[in-house]
């Protein structure tokens, strides 16, 4: 209504101005007319008859005699002349608006009929009516994404779901189809993505992501709310696309009334058609206008000289060519396809310099990390004489159509995420695109006029490209997918009818991982914790954090951290070089790690909100993307509601009572929010023009208040939907956690993250900050990501000098404050990096969560998961620690079992155990035990375990009650429980001897018996230890019988002979090699 009034008053001003210029007074009443008696119409035509509108009540007397409104302040009395004049103006305005609508409708209909797909409209409708599955192979530019849903709606189908691989495509297509169906202010066409939706009960066409449709299947396996399902851009072969195809193939046998339409420009027709039992194919030609193709390969010598930074010269040369060849008055924008964000920002920086010099270009980046408002700017219109240069990832390759693009620069590269199952890490690598993707990119130039595509590679390179891209399901981990498959009731995920099945090892690895996380039983059925994990729209790691957070009543900080890990980081990476921003955000950094830094930033943002201060400026000064905090709030609420639905989080006892002033303020904000949203919807109708800013060579919206309006909407929506006082109270508690609560929070987070832990390299103390390396079980020599807190403060990872101790006979430094780094993921770009790391106590973390725990006879040496060795100085302390861990882990599992079984039941069954466990766990986390920790090398694994030949299996009393009294078939030792094997490790002296990487490696060594120094190999060291112990025993038994002693030693090792050293004045039994090495030792020492 507000927008309508603004338009009316604007029209009134122009109308009055027109009246003044023409000097014709507004007609107050129509003159007497002669009417034909036969036809009852005026006998003379007048222009006023073109207005085909009128008021229902044409009696002015009734209007004039009505009572005034009590609050009106119009002092002048109404007259018949004034009312007639105003009525005439309103009629002209309504007629003007109606003609605008008719004109737009006529243009829309003309544009739709000019699309190539229009000729195939009836054929598509007939094929969908006669078949369950139809393939629409429409070339780029044919209009399939926007027109096919409308065709089906006109054909009588009421509930249509159209999936898209990306959220931005859902939003833009929904807006476009709403515009074409004259339903911009209605809800007949809507979209639904992760954090927002416009869907209503009367929605007929819904654009949504593939993952969201799969989530809907978990609650409605038959998708009964839909009559037609359109899968757009199926050629991209995302992991959820392939799974959705398989689910629909199974569903079609149960729902004969369901229609499925597959759409793509570069679809593999034979593969998809045969998968759906030879489904019919409708081929639609594409490009509306011819596209000129030019190959501009980058010279090889230039490629060889390239540094790690991208060479932008070829792209600038193309921009210069466009400037010289085409006049600026000739419209046509440039779209550049690059592989990733780093390349985009490099080119944007260089292109902005060129644009500032020429004053003829505006540079706009486009990638998924940008906010929706920033992404929408690429659709705005550039000023006359200026071209847009859109630098994009492959987000612009499909679905998103940018009007006015005439030129394309195709780098031929794309960055894809591949998962390395051996090293348990993701690799983001640059690859050549497929020929199908190259054709998609070229087609973007021929949408609105003749275009040119510049390919920065040769035609021979194009011919050598793969025909289609590698499906995502063949290159990513399948943990979440396998969990979702099992939760949907599929009997055997190995036999699922994928269109192209993944490797069997990938599915097996995912099943093993889910069993290790406690989500699956041995028979591959869901456990109670697995059922809840399958319902949370996050991966297994984050889901397990949420469940454990509810178990120990630390849910709010866990919810915040889990929500933060579920969205893109709010810390803008490009601001790392800004000194002022780094100084402003420094107080947000946490010594505990990146998840706690994220928690600090979120909590302070809440506090600033609660104080009524401007969070937009606050975020900008600290290099933070405020949109991510709004996403965190939505995701946090979603997690909270899911936990409440499963009774893992109690409902609020009672809502807070609001005063009359608070209620009045709430209603005022709600009314203001609705008004702003109506204004925003109205602004969407208008084409937005960009304004040139010379300083930044960027374009901003012509409406200076647009950005602030969007922020006002988000801020008001936040204040209306959230209890700000409650959020402030909870965030304050999270900011004031005590050290014991922080340690407990770390353990809760590790319950989901483990075994993702890394140990620091022994030589980190001698390395610069950027070269600090860490090791995991599967991958060595990992670096901290530059965005991590510890990359700039590595001193936080060093042991304090006042808490270290060196014990004789023990390897490494003894301390009670050894720490590991727990991380969320490993990402390899140009180097392998640890992402989102935090410090965790080494002893407590490994003993609580390791799946394999092995010890020697005295428990002074413990190996966790076959790669971390923990050594204690005292056997009593070691055995007490192991006993405590066994009881803690048993109590933890019992509590989790009782907690899940007691849903909808009395909580008294587990409340006491819960209190005891929290108390004991806090004490264990605070324990001060001296120990050392190190990484076991690969060469040591062969000699790590005693094996089955050792017969001494006597148990300490503390383990007898828990032992299964079974011998381990490989390691040796006694199986205490599912994860602990006692006395399967060699003693310290044997293990120490085999700790060298190879048996022939020589190194310095001091014998602990005779305190002599040697340079020996592993074999020679063992030989000396044996002879040294024998010599010591002989001296004790017969101190005077040297000859017998020498003879006995010689008998034990005939290669040894008596050697009197003149330098040290001692007598030895050495081999010839040992004699030479001993002499060399004195020579080296003398030098």
From TrEMBL:
Positions of region (Disordered): 1030-1052
Molecular function GO terms recorded: ATP binding; helicase activity; hydrolase activity; RNA binding
Domain Helicase ATP-binding positions: 125-285
Key words, A-Z: ATP-binding, Helicase, Hydrolase, Nucleotide-binding
Domain Helicase C-terminal: 321-489
Gene3D superfamilies: 1.20.120.1080, P-loop containing nucleotide triphosphate hydrolases
CDD domains: DEXHc_DHX34 (cd17979), SF2_C_RHA (cd18791)
InterPro entries registered for this protein in UniProt: DEAD-box_helicase_OB_fold, DEAD/DEAH_box_helicase_dom, DHX34_Znf-C2H2, HA2_WH, Helicase-assoc_dom, Helicase_ATP-bd, Helicase_C-like, P-loop_NTPase
Cited Pfam families: DEAD, HA2_C, Helicase_C, OB_NTP_bind, WHD_HA2, zf-C2H2_DHX34
SMART domains per the UniProt record, alphabetical: DEXDc, HA2, HELICc
Name used for this protein in its record: Probable ATP-dependent RNA helicase DHX34 isoform X2
Gene behind this protein: LOC115228630
């Amino acid at each position: 209504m507000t927008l309508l009034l603004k338009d009316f008053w604007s029209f009134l001003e122009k109308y009055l101005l027109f009246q003044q210029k023409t000097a014709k007074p507004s007609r107050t009443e129509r003159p007497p007319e002669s009417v034909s008696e036969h036809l009852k119409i005026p006998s003379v035509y007048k222009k006023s008859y073109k207005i085909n509108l009128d008021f229902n009540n044409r009696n002015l007397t009734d209007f004039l005699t009505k009572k005034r409104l009590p609050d009106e302040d119009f002092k002048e009395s109404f007259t018949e002349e004034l009312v007639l004049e105003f009525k005439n103006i309103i009629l002209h305005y309504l007629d003007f608006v109606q003609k605008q609508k008719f004109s737009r409708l006529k243009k829309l209909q003309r544009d739709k009929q000019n699309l190539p797909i229009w000729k195939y409209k009836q054929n598509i409708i007939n094929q969908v009516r006669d078949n369950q599955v139809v393939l629409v192979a429409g070339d780029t530019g044919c209009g399939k994404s926007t027109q096919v849903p409308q065709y089906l709606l006109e054909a009588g189908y009421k509930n249509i779901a159209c999936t898209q691989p990306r959220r931005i495509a859902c939003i833009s297509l929904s807006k476009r189809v709403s515009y074409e169906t004259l339903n911009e202010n209605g809800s007949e066409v809507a979209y639904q993505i992760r954090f927002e939706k416009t869907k209503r009960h009367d929605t007929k066409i819904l654009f949504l992501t593939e993952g969201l449709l799969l989530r809907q299947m978990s609650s409605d396996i038959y998708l009964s709310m839909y009559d037609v399902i359109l899968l757009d851009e199926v050629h991209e072969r995302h992991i959820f696309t392939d799974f959705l195809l398989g689910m629909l193939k199974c569903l079609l046998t149960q729902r004969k009334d369901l229609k499925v339409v597959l759409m793509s420009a570069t679809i593999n027709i034979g593969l998809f058609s045969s998968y759906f039992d030879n489904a019919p194919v409708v081929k639609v030609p594409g490009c509306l206008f011819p596209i000129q193709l030019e190959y501009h390969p980058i010279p090889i010598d230039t490629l060889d000289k390239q540094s790690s930074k991208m060479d932008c010269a070829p792209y600038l040369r193309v921009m210069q060519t466009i400037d010289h060849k085409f006049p600026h008055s000739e419209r046509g924008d440039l779209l550049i396809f690059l592989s990733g964000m780093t390349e985009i920002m490099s080119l944007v920086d260089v292109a902005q310099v060129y644009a500032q010099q020429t004053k003829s270009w505006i540079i706009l980046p486009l990638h998924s990390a940008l906010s929706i408002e920033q992404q929408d700017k690429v659709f705005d219109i550039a000023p006359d004489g200026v071209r847009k240069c859109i630098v994009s990832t492959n987000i612009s390759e499909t679905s998103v159509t940018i009007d006015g693009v005439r030129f394309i620069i195709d780098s031929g590269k794309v960055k894809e995420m591949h998962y390395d199952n051996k090293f348990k890490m993701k690799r983001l690598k640059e690859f050549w695109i497929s020929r199908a993707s190259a054709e998609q990119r070229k087609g973007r130039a021929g949408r609105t006029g003749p275009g040119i595509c510049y390919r920065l590679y040769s035609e021979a390179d194009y011919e050598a490209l793969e025909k289609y891209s590698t499906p995502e399901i063949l290159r990513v981990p399948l943990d979440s997918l396998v969990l979702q498959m099992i939760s949907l009731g599929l009997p055997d995920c190995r036999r699922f009818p994928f269109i192209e099945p993944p490797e069997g090892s990938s599915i097996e690895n995912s099943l093993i991982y889910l069993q290790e996380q406690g989500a699956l039983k041995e028979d591959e059925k869901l456990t109670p914790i697995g059922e809840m994990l399958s319902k949370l729209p996050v991966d297994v790691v984050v889901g397990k954090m949420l469940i454990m957070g509810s178990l120990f009543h630390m849910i709010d900080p866990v919810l915040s951290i889990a929500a933060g890990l579920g969205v893109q980081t709010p810390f803008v990476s490009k601001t790392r070089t800004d000194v002022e921003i780094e100084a402003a955000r420094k107080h947000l950094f946490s010594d505990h790690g990146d998840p706690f830094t994220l928690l600090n930033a979120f909590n302070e943002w809440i506090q600033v909100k609660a104080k009524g201060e401007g969070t937009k400026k606050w975020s900008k000064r600290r290099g933070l993307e405020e949109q991510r905090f709004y996403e965190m709030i939505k995701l946090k609420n979603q997690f909270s509601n899911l936990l409440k639905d499963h009774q893992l989080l109690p409902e609020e006892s009672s809502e807070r009572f609001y005063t009359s002033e608070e209620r009045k303020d709430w209603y005022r904000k709600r009314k203001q929010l609705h008004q702003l949203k109506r204004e925003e919807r109205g602004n969407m109708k208008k084409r937005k023009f960009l304004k040139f800013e010379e300083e930044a060579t960027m374009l901003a919206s012509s409406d200076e208040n647009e950005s602030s309006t969007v922020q006002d909407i988000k801020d008001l929506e936040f204040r209306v939907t959230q209890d700000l006082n409650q959020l402030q109270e909870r965030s304050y508690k999270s900011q004031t956690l005590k050290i014991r609560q922080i340690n407990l929070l770390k353990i809760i987070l590790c319950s989901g993250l483990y075994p993702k832990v890394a140990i620091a390299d022994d030589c980190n103390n001698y390395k610069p900050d950027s070269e600090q390396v860490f090791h995991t079980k599967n991958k060595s020599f990992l670096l901290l990501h530059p965005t991590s807190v510890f990359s700039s403060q590595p001193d936080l990872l060093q042991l304090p000098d006042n808490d270290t101790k060196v014990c004789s006979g023990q390897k490494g430094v003894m301390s009670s404050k050894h720490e590991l780094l727990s991380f969320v993921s490993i990402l390899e770009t140009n180097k392998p990096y640890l992402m989102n790391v935090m410090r965790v106590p080494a002893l407590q973390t490994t003993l609580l969560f390791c799946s394999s725990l092995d010890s020697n006879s005295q428990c002074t040496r413990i190996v966790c998961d076959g790669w971390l060795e923990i050594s204690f100085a005292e056997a009593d302390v070691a055995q007490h620690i192991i006993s405590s861990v066994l009881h803690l882990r048993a109590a933890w599992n019992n509590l989790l079992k009782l907690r899940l079984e007691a849903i909808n039941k009395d909580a008294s069954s587990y409340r006491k155990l819960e209190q005891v466990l929290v108390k004991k766990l806090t004490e264990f986390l605070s324990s001060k035990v001296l120990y050392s920790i190190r990484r076991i090398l690969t060469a040591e694994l062969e000699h790590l375990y005693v094996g089955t030949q050792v017969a001494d299996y006597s148990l300490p009393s503390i383990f007898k009650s828990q032992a299964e009294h079974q011998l381990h078939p490989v390691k040796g030792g006694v199986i205490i429980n599912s994860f602990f094997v006692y006395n399967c490790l060699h003693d310290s002296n044997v293990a120490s001897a085999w700790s060298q990487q190879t048996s022939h490696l020589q190194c310095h060594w001091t014998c602990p018996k005779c305190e002599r120094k040697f340079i020996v190999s592993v074999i020679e060291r063992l030989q000396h230890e044996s002879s040294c112990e024998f010599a010591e025993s002989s001296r004790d038994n017969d101190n005077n019988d040297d000859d017998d002693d020498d003879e006995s030693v010689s008998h034990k090792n005939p290669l040894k002979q008596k050697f009197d050293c003149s330098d040290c004045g001692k007598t030895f039994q050495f081999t010839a090699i040992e004699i030479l090495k001993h002499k060399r030792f004195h020579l080296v020492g003398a030098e």
